[in-house]
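Dear all,

This email documents one entry for the complex benchmark we are building for the journal club exercise. For each entry we list the sequence lines for every component of the assembly. Then comes the predicted three-dimensional structure of the complex as a token string, followed by one or two observations. Please use this as the template for your own entries, and keep the labels exactly as they appear.
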Amino acid sequence: MNTLLQIEGVGKSFGGLKAVQNVSLSVTEGRLSALIGPNGAGKTTLFALMSGFLTPDTGRVVFAGQDITGQAPHLNARMGLTRTFQIVQPFAAQTVRENIAVGAHLHLPRRAQALGFAESVAQQVGLSPQLDKLASDLTVAGRKRLELARALATRPRLLLLDEVLAGLNPQEIAEMIPVVQGIAQSGVTVLMIEHVMQAVMTLAQEVWVLAQGQLIAQGSPAEVTNNKAVVEAYLGHGTAERLQKNAARATAAAQEAQT
Amino acid sequence: MKDFRRIALFTLVIGVIPFCTQSGVMLNFVMTALYACLLSQAWNVLGGFGGQFSFGHALFFGTGAYVQAIAQMQWGLSPWVALPLAMAFAAGVGAFVGAASFRYGLKGSYFALVTLAFAEVFRILATSVPFTGAGVGLMLPLKESAANMQFANRAGFIWLMLGLVTLALCITAWLRHSRFGAYLQAVRDNEDAARAIGVNPFSVKLIATVLSGGLMGAGGAFYVQVFQYIDPGIAFGSHTSVEALVGAIVGGLGTLWGPLLGAISLHILADLTRNLFGQLPGINMVIYGVVLIVIVMFLPRGMAGLGTITPLQWLRGSKRSDGDKS
């Protein structure tokens, strides 16, 4: 199993705020991994550091064996590292087809080829019926799909997905999960930031947990959700203990009632 | 390609006008309208397709005009050689200004101010250095012949300008059907999203500035050939910058025919108001301004966008769709 992306001791501060501190992790090729953590943990900042939108203050980023620390995003995209945005960023004045074609142009210089390829990518993410709509006329779910399609059209090796499920209703989430799954199965390595735990549990093979800019846990989804530090990061200090005590008390009470 | 066929038709139709009429007023009108079209088309490449609003396109216009004059008067070149040279110099100035602005990430109003400032700097430089003839300007000697690009009648100038407008139209059509054009529009609509999928915004905007500057330079060179005189105020004054951007905005940004439509309509409007209200100096500018406000309010996508919005949107004076209303 090869490591596709490795970050070592990466840190970034904004003024006095240490957004990301000394984070090291490695993404294995061919896997679907997730990065979770409470709001403000620094997940999106970490994505920006990986993809070149921000330059880390410390540490380095290695992609496919090459040091890409501080390399411009468009050069990373050419190497096969592409990201999406949590707040969708469509080319609003253009149609869905044209939006996706911009991504496709990374490998297809001819306009007709890129527009043709856009159609097949649209099919993959379920946007075929909307191909000729303006991006600004799409629903939130449609825009999330478009964000995904545009990144996918660059034929990435590693796709960084920043909350593709945020803002969707349960039904839309249920429709979107197979799309992400399909992308991973087609051979693209995926690292996703996600708050929707249902998705993380079903999709991710490996999970990292970030809290206050630091990695606090790593493992399979089941391991991570039972981790005391993770529970406390989400629900506050002492919560894990309290929950355990409550559970023990409930069991004791149940036993007492039986006797 | 449909666009190129339409351009060919346009060129053909305008090209035969000099055979149909001998009216000096009419031919003069066609020539100046085409000239306005070129300026707006040039501005549209950077402003409409690239979203970089320049308030100082006179910078490129003036550069082209001065190079055209100096190349003939001081370097002894033929005007036919001077014209591509003028375009190259204007494009070069575009490369310089573009590199300086985009390197430091200047966008929106900052870019507009920088271009305005550069045009002003060039105007002052042109008034102070000797080879531009300083404040007196340069007067191109009258040597009427086609070889000298000084045609005996308007027809020659019309065909020359028509050639340049056709070139500008072809470049615009190419923007609509090429990877570069797609990248340029992507950068205009959302620079970060474009970067994430492999677009280098710096080089894309730089090339657009070079193309736009080159076309604008051709406009300046043409001006010198027709009026045989250039001074710093004409060359780098804000009037030309405004004429170029207003035509493109009124007609429809980022469209193929919009800038043409806008430039011609405004040209007609300016002519009409000047003739109708000639005894009230300045009134034509007032009317011009009012029409501009009305168009911006009711035709947010310009005249070329007239067919693309519904009457209801039109009544509401709907804004350009910006994608923020989710």
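Observations: Chain B is about 70% helix and 0% strand. Chain B touches chain A through 26 residues (CB under 8 Å).
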